[in-house]
Structure formats: structure tokens, C-alpha cells
């Protein structure tokens, strides 16, 4: 899972752009999806951030999108019970709300075989007060923070060449954190979105991304559209390193 322990000071991005968050949710109200079970954990979360309300009010005050997961009696997997997501990475909360963890991650190649058991164990043993974080990355054909791609990869990346890859490919990183709420026991999953054009990175990081793109596990590379941009990214990396 690649998790590292974080301090309370490292949990959320300081000084978020609250106006950008408010505008984003106003533009895309369907990013907020709540079940009745999300009410008490959402209010606990809002109080933790010093505001009255629900997960929605909490997410409006933070840079990070927020999801709540709860273990129902008699079940072995946590379910998504609430989401306030302004800037998704190619997913829609309405399609995920209420699903258990393994169904949530079903599109990810290798999750069931390589990660599911470890994730379930981590969630079961996570203690209140502990905060853990990790980062992932995607290559997108847009620099918008709300990314829901409806085009097939061959079409989305059709305009990308080795010559323009620095301006037409965008590196999207999610800084994710997990913590258990003290009173309700729900688990809060936060997702902080950061997007930069490929060309804004230094040569070493571009080279690392090129190698990582080429080595994506079978199937997962197809899900991320890697075959449509990998050659252009690799050639661009070689040019920057020359």
C-alpha cells in the first residue's frame, strides 16, 4: 500500500483555496453523495475541523476531497457511506456510494490478488489518532482538477506527440490519507489533488514517469490509457535527458 505515518500537522494541506472548493461543488453538486449512515460521522468530522455541518461542509474548508467508510454489523468489508468529491480522478461518486471496498476497487487490475487482503487488514486494525498517507499518479490529457474522461484513450491522447508532450500531457497526483474517527469509528479517506503539465517537472522525474508508464502491470496500463501516450512520453523524456 506504500503508507507512511503522518503527524496531525501533516494531515491536510494548510491554507486551502476555500473559494475554489466552494465554486467546484457549486458547479458539480453530484460530487456529494451521502447515505443516512454518513450523518453522525460527517458531523464528527466537521467538528474535528471546527465547523458545524456534515462531510460536505468539512470538504468545503479543505483542499482535500473526503470519503467516509463504515463497517456494517455482520460484514467484513468497509463500505463507502459518504463522499464529498469536487475533483475526482476519472470516477463518479454516484457509481461508488454504498459499495464495499473490493467492489470499489474492482476496476484496478491486480487489486484483488495483490492488495485486497492487506487493505482489509489495515482497515480493521487502524486505531483512532493514527494518520497514514500515500501518493499515487496518473497521466491525463487535461489539466482540469475535475477529471472524468468519457473518450477512449486513443481519442483522448490523439493529439499528443513527443514534441508537444510537455504541454499536452498532465501529471496528476493524489495525496491520500486515512484516519479513524474517535467517536463513530468511521474511517475518513482524504484525496488531495495536484496537477502539473509534464514539462513543469524536472528531467529526472520525467524519466521516472516514463519508466513507470512502461512497467505498469498488464491490464492496469490499458485502464490508464498508457498505450496511447507511453511512446510520446518516453521519447519526450529522452529528449529532456539528452
Describe this structure in words.
- The chain is α+β, with helices and mostly antiparallel strands and 242 residues long.
- Helix content is 37%, strand content 21%.
- The protein has 11 helices and 7 strands.
- The chain has helices spanning 18-27, 39-48, 55-60, 93-96, 101-104, 111-125, 153-156, 165-168, 203-214, 220-223, 226-241; strands at 4-6, 32-34, 65-70, 79-84, 131-140, 170-180, 187-197.
- The chain has a 7-stranded antiparallel sheet with strand order 1-5-6-7-3-4-2.
- A hairpin with a 6-residue loop joins strand 6 and strand 7.
- Helix 9 packs antiparallel against helix 11.
- The longest helix is centred in the C-terminal third of the chain and has 16 residues, at 226-241.
- The chain is globular, with a radius of gyration of 19 Å.
- The protein starts with a strand and ends with a helix.
- The mean pLDDT is 91.
Can you lay out the helices and strands and say which pair or pack?
Blueprint: E1 4-6, H1 18-27, E2 32-34, H2 39-48, H3 55-60, E3 65-70, E4 79-84, H4 93-96, H5 101-104, H6 111-125, E5 131-140, H7 153-156, H8 165-168, E6 170-180, E7 187-197, H9 203-214, H10 220-223, H11 226-241
Antiparallel strand pairs: 1-5, 2-4, 3-4, 3-7, 5-6, 6-7
Amino acid at each position: 500500500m506504500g503508507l507512511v505515518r503522518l503527524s496531525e500537522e501533516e494531515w491536510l494541506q494548510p491554507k486551502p483555496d476555500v473559494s475554489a472548493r466552494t465554486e467546484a461543488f457549486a458547479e458539480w453538486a453530484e460530487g456529494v453523495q451521502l447515505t443516512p449512515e454518513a450523518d453522525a460521522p460527517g458531523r464528527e468530522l466537521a467538528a474535528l475541523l471546527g465547523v458545524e455541518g456534515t462531510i460536505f461542509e468539512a470538504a468545503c474548508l479543505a483542499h482535500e476531497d473526503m470519503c467516509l467508510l463504515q463497517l456494517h454489523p455482520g460484514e467484513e468489508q468497509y463500505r463507502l457511506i459518504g463522499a464529498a468529491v469536487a475533483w475526482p480522478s476519472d470516477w463518479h461518486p454516484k457509481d461508488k456510494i454504498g459499495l464495499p471496498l473490493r467492489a470499489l476497487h474492482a476496476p484496478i487490475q491486480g487489486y484483488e490478488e495483490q492488495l485486497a487482503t492487506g487493505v482489509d487488514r489495515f482497515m480493521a486494525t487502524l486505531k483512532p489518532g493514527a494518520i497514514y498517507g500515500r501518493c499515487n499518479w496518473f497521466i491525463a490529457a487535461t489539466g482540469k482538477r475535475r477529471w472524468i474522461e468519457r473518450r477512449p484513450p486513443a481519442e483522448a491522447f490523439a493529439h499528443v506527440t513527443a514534441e508537444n508532450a510537455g504541454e499536452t500531457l498532465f501529471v496528476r497526483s493524489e495525496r491520500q490519507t486515512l484516519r479513524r474517527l474517535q467517536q463513530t469509528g468511521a474511517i475518513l479517506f482524504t484525496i488531495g489533488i495536484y496537477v502539473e503539465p509534464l514539462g513543469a517537472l524536472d528531467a529526472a522525474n520525467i524519466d521516472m514517469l516514463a519508466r513507470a508508464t512502461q512497467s505498469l502491470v498488464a491490464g492496469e496500463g490499458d485502464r490508464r490509457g498508457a498505450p496511447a501516450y507511453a511512446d510520446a512520453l518516453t521519447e519526450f523524456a529522452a529528449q529532456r535527458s539528452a
